[in-house]
Amino acid sequence: MFGRISGIARNTFREAIRDKVLLILLVFAIVVMGSAKVIQPLALGEESKVIKDLGLGAITFFCVLIAVLVGGRLVYKEMEKRTIYIMLAKPVRRWEFILGKYLGLMAVLFVSMLIMTAGFYIILLVSGIPASAYLLWSLLMTAFELAILTAVAILFSSFVPPIASAVFTFAVYFIGHLTRDLRLLAAMSPSAVVKGISEFLYYVLPNLSNFNIKGEVVHDVLLNPQALALSALYALVYTATLLLISVAIFRRKDF
Amino acid sequence: MSTLVEPVIRTVKLCKTYRSGFRMKRVQALSDLELDVGKGETFGFVGPNGAGKTTFIKILIGLTSPTSGEVRVLGKSPRDAQVKTKIGFLPESPYFYEYLTPSEFLHLSARLSGIPGQDVEVRVRYLLKLVRMEDAAHAQMRGFSRGMLQRIGIAQALVNDPELVILDEPMGGLDPVGRKELRDIIIGLRERGKTVFFSTHILSDVEMICDRVGIVIRGRLVNTGRLSEILTEEVESVEITVKGLTGKFRKVLEKVTQQSIRSGDSLFLTVRNEEEVERVMAIVREARAKISALVPRRKTLEDYFMARIREAERK
């Protein structure tokens, strides 16, 4: 079982790193982080915070792009190109296939994040800004957020084409960061329909704003370990649920 | 067939309907298909395009579920992962991960098939040699010709030394040399007691290598049997080539034969039986002309196949 899952995960990883899209995104991310040096004179003494904020933001943004663009076509491409016929004719269970694909993409994201983080710390050092390890907490929470987002991408990818999948996953990402506003909208709206839809979306969509602690780490605000642990647990449960739904859809599928 | 040993493939009243197109029209892909394929048989599944061959194969592999009926492969459900350790499958016009090299892809296939790590390298090398892809073993499959992909497809289907090999249109994309090599591979598998089930619409291949054939038309299995049962040894017609005929005798011959074609000073005649052959020979002797060829023509699978299609169309 582990051999098969890791085989599929390794193949997914290999596919992504041999794809030019990933390389282009990584180069772009480093360029964006480096561009903070250019706007330094405009930062009016706040350059250290601007560079940190921009760096962390760029890492999150480009990782989200990778999860959405690569993840969105992960399963669908296998169906479209019919490589899935060969995979599923081997003694690979369908859930192993989905889990392998998921873990492969998570490995891609992990390595991408590692490269971008290394680039980020080099920029901090070059700029003479103290490269505190405290910033890594923000990246750890981004990793949990990506775990959810990748599972969303895989779920969509198992039944809609890549472009639709990317659009839907992006929509989940954006609304996921506005879930608190959704609740507010539900409380304030006089319409029962709007109230109902907002409440529904609030409970169904992932609450991703919990994973954004960039402001806190950049401004050296003390973090609440309990809240972080709870967010991590939430990410694990949410991801597992999404993967189970993907597997349930995938198991019933006729190819 | 003996009922004591369960066949390698058994389907009972297998039906598959699916919905297609914008209006979700129901399409009956397979109707009450009943088939047994025994151990060690090389079975040719023959039918025109769109007859349901690929749908049937997808059910055998567990890629698609039947709407009704029963399917057993090696005595179990095709979705059973245990069964898949003993099956090799080549899909029609296979497409692989183009960013991989044949060697990497076969390593992946071996790993997914559960082949022990220490045996993988030897197996991959053996298969690359078998399908003559050693020279391209380390080039990315991007840009490979269809024939090259087909060869890799055959190699991956044999990676686990399967008991049952299922090949969907295996001759597609292969040049004559490739087809000959694949026929040799299939014959080799049969000699080792493996069961081979393959679909095709190239009838000459079936005639050369199959023990039994099944003919499927519009989702129905219209006939199964040994080739020797389907194709009788009886002579269907005789083709005679006559040279050096004068105009008068040519006209006489054209009248007494079923079919005649002129080409230069040769006349190609088709007659139905020995009696007609005798009659033609007598006229040729009288005309002092020469018979340059006399070929008895037996019923071919193609004749049989075309007759069944015509019957199905009349119904």
Automatic annotation (TrEMBL), chain B:
A molecular function GO annotation: ATP binding
UniProt keyword annotation of ATP-binding present: yes
Keywords recorded for this protein, A-Z: ATP-binding, Nucleotide-binding, Transport
Residue intervals of the ABC transporter domain: 9-243
Annotated protein name in UniProt: Multidrug ABC transporter ATP-binding protein
Nucleus as UniProt keyword: no
Xref: SMART domains: AAA
Source species, domain of life: Bacteria
Family (UniProt): Belongs to the ABC transporter superfamily.
